Amino acid sequence: MVPPRFGQWSTIHSPRSKQPFLCGHELAPSSTRLTPVTDASGESPAQLEAGRRGIEEMTRKSIEECRIQDDDTSKARGYEVSEMESVPLNPHEIPTDNPSAIYTTQPMGSSYPVECLLHSAAAKRELVEFPGYPLEIHRPSEVEERSYTIVDIPGKGLGMVATQDIEQGDLIASERPLLLAPHGMCGFRDIWFEYEATQEEQQAAMFSEVERVLRVAYDRMRPDDQAAYMKLHNAHLDDGSGPLLGILRTNVYSLFDMQGSKYTGVFNELSRINHSCCPNADRTFHRASLSMRLYAVRDIQKGEEITTSYCDLLAPFAKRQQYLARYGIHCECPPCLYPVESDENRRRISRLKNAVPAIIKWAATPALRDDLLIVPALTILRLLVGEGLEATQHYTQALYHTMLIFAALGTEGDKIGYLCCIEEWARLRRWDAEGRNPAEKAKCDLEKVKVASRARRLLAAREGEGVVVDTPEVE
After folding, report:
1. Which of 245, 354, 391, 406 fits as disulfide partner to 241, beta carbons 3.0 to 4.6 Å?
2. Among 16-25, 192-201, 292-301, 359-368, whose mean pLDDT is lowest?
3. Largest Cα–Cα distance of the chain, in whole Å?
């Protein structure tokens, strides 16, 4: 038998060393020692116990159905797969062995759980032992008014629209994924063909086996979550993907790295947000609450569509269009309507690097002009705003540089501009993905710039009197 080449999709072993596909499945209790979150469902202990037993029985049944399908499907297509075996796991503990996959509902006991498909016991340990986990997320009550709604957008399908004015930096939504799974679903099931399979046959086999792995996770979801998942758009109806895999490939967001694998998520509402090459919102994933946070990167007016980006915003127009075409998207945002000028602007912006050391050196050198850095810094900021790139790291970096330059200029600079840069930078940076406090680094850099600026003024004054002064250490 000749093993196929699936690249990142599958780990291939010799047929002589076949290992079973061990599915470690956990129950979803109302509370555990790992998660001090109380259940808000109002169910009695007997009802919760019945629900737990139902989840276990359903998982066993789903895995057994997959095993039967393996015999019916794989052998008919001329290949074999590693046998699927069910391994019940204690949700209160980290497995001592290492199953091929772990199906777990996290945070356990939460009213808004995530169905997780993990690739190792170490991945579960990292997930549940992340600092601050499991932090609950804010969900609006029935009397609270959300700042958005999901409606039909002409030419785009469903999308997100603001129901009120939203200010730059405001949190628009915070949502946990319906499904959390490794990117590419690689390495879960091994496949062996009995002949030299074509690329198309290999892909069909891979899609079929991944669909079965996903089916177990889907069957473990709550009915409302299952319905929400199946209502999402599927742009892969004609390439052999099953419905679960097609929806995942269409709507998945890359979230974070864990134990050597990149994890992705499919969301109910946040997966509805449409793409723009000049988006007015950005997203970060908050590990402690296991949720995606969507926030405004510029002011959004009531009735305006809320958009995010699916691709590298600094890539040339042709590459962006090529990437988006796989999702059936033809972007017609302003930068895409005037690609020649936009590509040149984005090429200039992409060259922006960390300039903090250069700013400190300039601030301490009287021989360098006062306007040497502020003019190009403001020029880059204008380009970023003109291109609608407030969602990029380059924009917050340019704001940071300009803030430091204004601080070094002191009374000779623009105090209003300085304060505006600080305020806007702080609004955009407060949703740091890992909960870090960017103000600490800013405080340190500002102090270095101010020390260098004082040295600059002192040197300039003493040079006129012919006095040599040692420059204070600023690094």
Report:
1. 245
2. 16-25
3. 94
Q: How many CB atoms lie within 10 A of CB 395?
A: 25
Write out the residue range of the structural domain in which residue 325 sits. 311-348
pTM metric for this prediction: 0.80
Within a domain: residue 267? Answer: no
Residue 245 burial by CB count (10 A; 0-12/13-18/19+): exposed, middle or buried? buried
Crossing angle for the helix pair 438-465 and 356-363, nearest 10 degrees? Answer: 30
Cβ(127)–Cβ(108) under 8 Å? no
Alpha-carbon distances, residue 380 vs 170, 235, 353, 387, 390 (angstroms): 24, 37, 12, 11, 12
Q: With DSSP H G I counted as helix, E B as strand and the rest as coil, what are the percentages for the chain, rounded to 5?
A: 40, 15, 40
Q: How far apart are CA 404 and CA 359, in angstroms?
A: 7
User: What's the rounded Cα separation, in Å, for the pair 327 and 55?
Assistant: 34
Structure token pair of residue 305: 């569509």
Q: What is the pLDDT of residues 256-305, one digit of tens each?
A: 999 988 999 999 999 999 999 999 999 999 999 999 999 999 999 999 99
> Within this chain, do residues 207 and 341 fall inside the same structural domain, yes or no?
no
Q: Are 110 and 183 found together in one domain?
A: yes
> E strands, 297-437, where?
305-308
The dihedrals phi and psi of 128, each to the nearest 5 degrees, come to -85, -15
- Alpha helices by DSSP H, listed for 193-316, are 199-220, 223-230, 243-251
Number of domains in the chain: 3
How many CB atoms are located within 10 Å of the residue 315 CB?
A: 16
CA atoms of 106 and 135, how far apart (whole Å): 11
Q: Is 356 helix (H, G, I), strand (E, B) or coil?
A: helix
Q: Specify whether the CB–CB gap between 69 and 63 falls below 8 A.
A: no
The one-letter amino acid code at 108 reads M
Q: What's the first-to-final CA gap in the chain, in angstroms?
A: 63
